[in-house]
Amino acid sequence: MNCKEEAIALMHKYLDDHLTQTEEKKLRMHLQACQECQTHFHELKRTISLVKSSSPVSAPQGFTSNVMANLPKQKKRNHYTK
Amino acid sequence: METVIKEKIKQIKKGNQAAFEDVVSFYQNKVYQICFRMIGNAHEAEDLAQEAFIRAYTNIDRFDERRKFSTWLYRIATNLTIDRIRKKKPDYFLDAEVKGTEGLSMYSQIAADQALPEEEVESLELQTYIHKEILALPPKYRSVIVLRFLDELSLQEIAEVLEIPVGTVKTRIHRGRETLRKRLRHV
C-alpha cells in the first residue's frame, strides 16, 4: 500500500467513521506492518483528543439578558381581548 | 429539546418576544463557543454571538420550521464571524491572536470543577496552545474543525451550516486535522 496516498486517506476515513469493513481490514494490516503509518495514525488520534478536550467555553454572565435588552421593539403585539 | 424549541419559535413568530429568551439561554454557550474559537478573543466573540441572536430574531420569519433551528442559527453565527475575520487587517489579526488567550483564564476556572477527559490538558498553558493552533488555521479549515470537534456536528450538518458540499467538508477536515497533527505532535 502506498502510505502517503492510500493509507493516510484510509486513516481519515476511519476518523470520519466512513470506513468499510474491507478498508478497515486493509488499514489494520498495513498499520501492523508500517511503523511510520502507525505513528501517523497515533498522532492524528491524539490531535483529535487534544482538540476535543480543550475546555468548553461558556457565554459570559448576563449574555441572555443583554441579547434581550438589545432586541428591536416588538413589531406585533399579543392582544388578549375577547 | 428540539420539540420545545420548535414550540418557542412558533410563539416568537406570533410576536411573543419573551419566548426568545429561552432560545437564547439554551443556545448561548454553543453559539458563543463557535464565535470564540473562530475569532479568538472573548470581547469580539460576545459581540458576534449577540449579533447572531439578534439577526436570528429579526429574521425569524425566514426560518423554515421543517429544518433544524440550530443549523440555521449556527449558519448565521459562522457567516458573521467569517465576515469579521475577512475584514480584519492582517496586523490587527495577528494582534488579536495573541489577545485570544484572554478569555481562557475565565473559562478555565469554570472548567476546573469538571473532570477533564485527559489529564494532560489540565494545564492552562496547553489549553492556550491548542486554542492558538486552532486560530492559526486558515478560516475555512478553522470553521470545520470547530464545528466537528468542539461542537461535535456531523459532516452532513457542517455541510448545511456552511452551505458547502459534504465532500468539501471532508477535505477541509482532513487538511485541518493534518495541519494540527503537525503542530501538536510534540506537545
From TrEMBL, chain B:
Keywords of this entry:
DNA-binding, Sigma factor, Transcription, Transcription regulation
Reading the lineage from the top rank, the first entry is Bacteria
SUPFAM superfamilies assigned to the protein according to its UniProt record, in alphabetical order: Sigma2 domain of RNA polymerase sigma factors, Sigma3 and sigma4 domains of RNA polymerase sigma factors
- InterPro entries xref list: RNA_pol_sigma-70-like, RNA_pol_sigma-70_dom, RNA_pol_sigma-W_bacilli, RNA_pol_sigma70_ECF_CS, RNA_pol_sigma70_r2, RNA_pol_sigma70_r4_t2, RNA_pol_sigma_r2, RNA_pol_sigma_r3/r4-like
Q: Where is the RNA polymerase sigma factor 70 region 4 type domain?
A: 129-180
* PROSITE patterns for the chain: SIGMA70_ECF (PS01063)
Keyword match Iron: no
Q: Which Pfam families match?
A: Sigma70_r2, Sigma70_r4_2
Keyword Transcription among record annotations:
yes
Ranges for domain RNA polymerase sigma-70 region come to 27-89
CDD domains, per the entry: Sigma70_r4 (cd06171)
Similarity comment text for this entry: Belongs to the sigma-70 factor family. ECF subfamily.
Q: Which NCBIfam families match?
A: PRK09641.1, sigma70-ECF, SigW_bacill
- Its protein name is RNA polymerase sigma factor
Gene name, per UniProt, is sigW
